[in-house]
Amino acid sequence: MTTLLISHSACLDHETPSGHPESPARLRAVLNALDDTPFEALSREEAPVAELDDIARVHPRGHVEALLSAVPAVGFARIDADTAMSPGSGEAALRAAGAVTRAVDHVATGKVQNAFCAVRPPGHHAEPETPMGFCLFNNVAVGALYAREKYGLTRAAVIDFDVHHGNGTQAMFEADENLFYASTHQSPLYPGTGDASETGVGNIVNVPLGEGSDSVAFKAAFETVILPALRAFEPNILFISAGFDGHADDPLAGLNLTEADYVWATKELMHIADIACDGRIVSTLEGGYDLGALARSASAHVATLMGR
User: Fold this and answer.
1) How many Å apart are CA 294 and CA 30, to the nearest integer?
2) Residue 308: what pLDDT?
């Protein structure tokens, strides 16, 4: 099984204010873990700069151009209380989205079985015209619509196990029956969306988990709700919004998951992908703010994608 790792050093140049949890150290921790001996067999590629036309399928082009033009020459440009840009943020955001489209290229053409995009800034909170929650462009949504436009993979599914609900992805998918979004997340918690009653046109599945929920609740959410719905959808390609901030060690939330839970979820998703879409999976990094837990969880996720 061939797994591709896509990243770029420019994603480290997206600086955030001192003390901000979404820092370059997150990506360094993941990349350092993936440089270890067990990952010598990983194929590796640098993320390209995304084409603006590809981003404009999910974010209006005027919004994309305005956001890029607001990147500061020095210091920080605040978007909201949580989200800021530095001089390196524009290229980082373009490389993060470009990583996902390049991953689609390789997975859709059969060059690799699956791919993991180790990039930042993350993306699943970014709504069509509103960057928020540390996110500038919605990387996974860009990839999903790119897969449909370029390769005819019309039925794209996103499974999101970040501890925070992916309000941006849901907002972009909820009116399109050929796009599927499922999320398990802590609630109540930022951004306040993701109630089970939010079902779009029958293509949105949310399973909120209460604070303190552990492996039992997480697996039940998948086994009883998310996985059956995904099977019924029969995707042509499967994306994973891989946030690891549901880990028990993470400082920003209150779930009690472990690396083993991410391994289990990844295996279950791979099994469905093998049946529904020739194993085509593109996973992209979202949250995770304890550096040790993030590195262990992401490397366990990638090792599972590799078939280890």
Assistant:
1) 7
2) 81
How many angstroms separate the CA atoms of 10 and 89, rounded? Answer: 8
- Torsion-angle region of residue 212: left (phi > 0), alpha (psi -120 to 50) or beta? left
| pTM of the entire predicted model | 0.98
Closest CA to 262 of 279, 275, 249: 249
Q: Are 116 and 305 in contact (CB under 8 A)?
A: yes
Separation CA 136–CA 130 (nearest Å): 8
Residue 93: pLDDT over 80: yes
Looking up residue 185, the CATH number of its domain turns out to be 3.40.800.20
**Would you state the pLDDT for residue 22?**
98
DSSP code at position 186: E
Residue 212 CB neighbour total at 10 angstroms = 11
Q: Count CB atoms within 10 A of the CB of residue 211.
A: 12
Q: 79 near 130, Cβ under 8 Å?
A: no
pLDDT-based confidence at residue 296 (cuts at 50, 70, 90): very high
Q: How many domains does the chain have?
A: 1
Inform me whether the pLDDT recorded for 112 exceeds 80: yes
Catalytic site residue 125? yes
Whether residue 135 contacts residue 124, with contact meaning beta carbons closer than 8 Å, is answered with yes
* Catalytic position from the list 125, 165, 185, 301: 125
Residue 213 · residue 246 · CB < 8 Å: no
Residue with tokens 């999910």: 58
Cα(114)–Cα(306) distance, rounded to whole angstroms?
8
Q: What is the residue range of 76's domain?
A: 3-305
CA dist., res. 230 & res. 239, Å (int): 12
Alpha helix ranges (H) inside 112-209: 139-151, 167-173
Q: Rounded to 5 degrees, what angle do the CA atoms 295, 299, 301 make?
A: 120
Give the separation between CA 275 and CA 271, rounded to whole angstroms.
Answer: 7
